[in-house]
Structures are given as structure tokens and as C-alpha cells.
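Changelog-linked ticket: 2'-O-acetyl adenosine-5-diphosphoribose example.
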Amino acid sequence: MIYERVTEELKERFREAWAVAVLTGAGVSAESGVPTFRGGGGAAVWRGMPVEKIATPEMWRADPVTFWQWYAYRREVIGRAEPNAAHRAIAAWERRFERLTVITQNVDGLHQRAGSRNVLELHGSLWRVRCPQCGVKMEDRRVPLPEIPPRCPSCGGILRPDVVLFGEAVPEAVFSQAVAATATCDLFLVVGTSAIVYPAAALPVLAKQNRAFVIEVNPETTPVTEIADVTILGRAGEVLPRLSPEGNGGG
Ligand code: OAD
């Protein structure tokens, strides 16, 4: 069913939930000024190149300068961004439910900055780098980067962001935790994702198969709309605080 607003019935569902999992995508950070990959009729392009071509292991190997210029640009945009009302509402829910798991496809770290602690980063983090040559992995929050491409302090190899690039698999350990949280929740929210990139896109179906109530929040319909119990058409920063009136500023 498609709703234009949060109803009393939905608030009641929310009040009664015990174990909640929230799958988020780029749309949850849109109101923080972080561009989405899709939606609004367009696909992401940077300097005339589709992002699907840049953010790949092939580009990292063939042209690490262009590859890292794109990531340096993303680090600048995301480094300036602040968590929005949607991130804050989700963070507050951690205190409210017996169990709350955030499963995010975002690499921006904004859920954690808003205060969420139980976050599964399916696609890694922009704020970590690793060296494929010697295996070193470390946090790296430098904006701007001192050199492009950045090099490993241990062996001098070219670093890469610790993110899942196009064509790469989601790390198994984090995905199996996401599956466990999804299969055992009674309320599953799908927020700001076009829900077409696998394996994340399989999670709402799994939630439904395990009898969770599935609520989607997105200004547009997606493939999840067909299986969701309710799709609330709206922006995450406006809709999420309304699901939990107390402490989140709105009814
Ligand atoms: P997309 O860019 O594919 O989809 C963003 C979704 O957010 C769209 O459905 C929009 O309608 C919706 N949206 C836009 N503004 C919103 C708002 N204010 N509130 C709620 N929703 C809003 O982003 P993802 O689904 O996250 O992977 O994309 C999945 C993956 O595709 C990304 O993690 C990335 C990309 O390939 C990798 O980089 C591996």
C-alpha cells in the first residue's frame, strides 16, 4: 500500500516493534547534501564518466589518479556534510527498541556521526583505506589528501578506499550479520534506496519471508514497493521523525 503520510496505524506498529532492522541507501543522506547514484531520473556521472566506470578495481589499476580524484571529491563533499533528521531519528531508535540494527549501503559514516552504534556497513567506509600490496588497513580522514594517489605508509604501494567497488562482492561476514538481523526482526524499514543493487536488494524480500512488517520510505516507488506492506512516499528527514513522535520532534 502506498501512503502519502505517516498514519496512526503505522505509529502503532512502530510502538509495538521489538527487533528492528533499517536498510538505508544513498537517499538517507540526500538531505545532508550527498548526491545519490540514481533517482530523479538520472544516473551519476562525474567529469563525463559514469560512476560505474570510475569506481571499479579496473580503474584503480589502470588510472589511479582519476580513480582517486573521484574519491577525493567524494571525501570533500561528504566531509562537509552533517547528519540530518533521518540519521538522528534512526540513532535515537537504538534506545527505544530491544534491538536495532542499521544495515547501510552508504560509505559516508553519517549514521555513526549521528550516534548510531550498531551499524553494518555493507559497502565499507570512505574513511578507511587499505593497501592491497601489504594488507595494511587504517582509518584515514584527511581532506584534502596530501597526494593523489595516496600511498601506503608501510610499503609505498598505492592505497585504495576500503569500500566495495562496482563488480566486487560484499564481504561475507558483514552480509551474514545483515541476513541474521533481517531474518529475525519484526519490523524492517527500507529507507532511501533504489533497491536494485544486490545483495542488499535481497534483504527486504528475506524480511518479508520471515514475516517482518516491511515499511519503505522513499519519494519514489522502487522494486521494494511491490513487496512492502507500506510505502510512505516522502523524504527520509521528514518521514522518519514522524514515526516516533517522542523525542524526535513531530507527530
Ligand atoms: P541510489 O542512488 O540507487 O538510490 C537512491 C534512492 O534514494 C532513490 O530511490 C531515491 O528515490 C531515494 N531518495 C532520494 N532522496 C531521498 C530522500 N530525501 N529521502 C529518502 N529517499 C530518497 O542509492 P542506493 O540504493 O544506495 O554501491 O544505491 C545502492 C548502491 O548503488 C550504492 O551503495 C552504490 C551504488 O552502486 C556501491 O558503490 C558498491
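Closing comment: Example verified and attached. The first helix runs from residue 8 to 16. The domain at 1-33+83-123+169-251 is CATH 3.40.50.1220 (Rossmann fold).
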